[in-house]
Design a protein that fits this description.
The complex is a heterodimer of chains A (about 110) and B (about 110). Chain A has about 110 residues and is mainly beta. In chain A, strands 2, 4, 5, 6, 9, 10 and 11 form a 7-stranded mixed β-sheet that branches. In chain A, a hairpin with a 5-residue loop joins β4 and β5. Chain A is globular, with a radius of gyration of 13 Å. Chain B has about 110 residues and is mainly beta. Helices cover about 0% and strands about 55% of the residues of chain B. Chain B has no helices and 12 strands. Chain B is globular and about 40 Å long. The chains are: A mainly beta (about 110), B mainly beta (about 110). Chains A and B meet through β5, β9 and β10 of A and β5, β6, β10 and β11 of B.
């Protein structure tokens, strides 16, 4: 039982390049989330998916797109990377999108945009 | 909008002693959940403890306990018998209909 996994662990991009961050969970959770973590700040929600087939914007969605490929996988795409998107990205999942949810996090992807 | 404030950017504690990390939040809701997450240097976010707002009893998990003051909107974390492995960044988080994090407190443990 691996929990939440993310690939890659680290990536360097040039401004304008595109890439997709992958996330998968094996806990049979309905809800999945993408966050970014910047220095001096807590995690901020980019996008979430309450269930397979649905996605919604979070606090900081600009410059990102997501795809809920199936119940296990939730990808985050940067179409044209910008230096402001240099950050650590976390994927998380939870059993249901209610107030009782405890979110379980992946190990993070460190992204550097030059 | 809900906000979470951690007023201590950094704290230090001697091994085996007790330390308390502060957290306050702002909300107009009456039903919500509060969490403390630990982030060690590995960056993995680990759930430490969870508190349901409608429960008056403070949550406890082994050496970790909270002091939840609903009227004051305060949710502090107490770590007893601190260990070297407790050194990490600690995040307080509020969940009404989405999870909102504080900026974090770095905890250093001295041997």
């Amino acid at each position: 039982n691996a929990g939440v996994t993310q690939t890659p662990k680290f990536q360097v991009l040039k401004t304008g390049q595109s890439m997709t961050l992958q996330c998968a969970q094996d806990m049979n959770h309905n809800s999945m989330y993408w966050y970014r973590q910047d220095p001096g700040m807590g995690l901020r929600l980019i996008y979430y998916s309450a269930s397979e087939g649905t996605t919604d914007k979070g606090e900081v969605p600009n410059g990102y797109n997501v795809s809920r490929l199936n119940k296990r996988e939730f990808s985050l795409r940067l179409e044209s990377a910008a230096p402001s998107q240099t950050s650590v990205y976390f994927c998380a999942s939870s059993d249901m999108r209610t107030r009782q949810e405890t979110q379980y996090f992946g190990p993070g992807t460190r992204l550097l945009v030059l | 909008a809900q906000t979470v404030t951690q007023s201590q950017p950094e704290m230090s504690v001697q091994e085996a002693e007790t330390v308390t990390l502060s957290c306050t939040y702002d909300t107009s809701e009456s039903d919500y959940y509060l969490f403390w997450y630990k982030q060690p240097p590995s960056r993995q976010m680990i759930l430490v403890i969870r508190q349901e707002a409608y429960k008056q009893q403070n949550a406890t998990e082994n050496r970790f306990s909270v002091n939840f003051q609903k009227a004051a909107k305060s949710f502090s974390l107490k770590i007893s018998d601190s260990q070297l492995g407790d050194a990490a960044m600690y995040f307080c988080a509020y969940n009404g209909n989405k999870l909102v994090f504080g900026a974090g407190t770095i905890l250093r443990v001295k041997s």
